[in-house]
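User: Round two. Same drill as before: sequence, then structure, for each protein.

Assistant: Same drill it is. First protein:
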Amino acid sequence: MILTVHVKPGASKTRFISWMDKTTAIIALAAPPVDGKANQELVAFLSKRLKVAKSFITIKRGHSGRVKHLELPDGTRFDHLSGS
């Protein structure tokens, strides 16, 4: 399953902001967009919030951009992302 994420690196803290649509989330990242730190922060955040091991989260597209397509295990529940 693919999750699209619009990231906002360099924020004061890492947090879920909102849903743009059913499969596109906006997430603020405390890490800067340097040397892959924002990508690492994103994977760690999603792993914790979605209760999925980091090794099962893969950035398929957008390694150097703000729009990222992440592959997650089928059946991942996104309601944990927004805290619902």
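Second protein:
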Amino acid sequence: MTPDTKVPSPCIDVCRMDDATGWCDGCLRTIDEIANWSSFDDDQKHAVWQAIDERHAQLMTARTAPRADAS
């Protein structure tokens, strides 16, 4: 990304909040991150993207981890 390139929104039009995580099922942002996106500067937007990457990794780890009740 070049310095004059706009930071893209992570929104994929799947807008549904997960009560367990507090993240949108589509973009993995919090409600505050969604509500404030347009007022964030580029550094804040990049920080949100970093948080999304970390959340995605958490979800993938949770989905692939063996369940304790599996037989």
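The chain has a mean pLDDT of 91.

User: Perfect.
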